[in-house]
Amino acid sequence: FSRWQHCWRRSIMGGICCTEEEGTSQVVQSISVDSDEKAAVAPGDQLIGHWKNSVGKYSISRDASGKLVFLEDCQPPMVLTGTLQRQDDGWWEAEISDRSQGGAAFGFLRL
Questions:
Q1: 77-86 pLDDT, tens per residue?
Q2: Cα distances (Å, whole numbers) of residue 31 to 10, 27, 90
Q3: How far is Cα 57 from Cα 64, in angstroms, rounded to an integer?
Q4: What does the pLDDT average to over 28-37?
Q5: Cα separations (Å) of 41 from 30, 37, 48, 99?
Q6: What is the pTM of this model?
Q7: Which of 13, 34, 82, 89 has a Cα-to-Cα distance from 73 of 20 to 30 A?
């Protein structure tokens, strides 16, 4: 594998099966709730956080429009990102691009 392919294989593909960075439980998101109303939990909130697996670290967060965004800084200098969309079969998928290369297409991610 070239360094680029090796990074892809280690980072994105390794991201399919992951564990949390700190311990075994995850605080999904801090939500402020008035006592008179219940907070709505959006699909995908369970994915939000900073994650680590045996080959690297990545994060999933919501952007200003509420979409789930995958982000990973990788070596060689790469910034991999994509917007996750829930599929009919229950998987979350994203087309991944490399910001360090002007948004060049990089591959796909399925969680």
A1: 899 999 999 9
A2: 33, 10, 24
A3: 23
A4: 40
A5: 11, 13, 12, 30
A6: 0.64
A7: 89
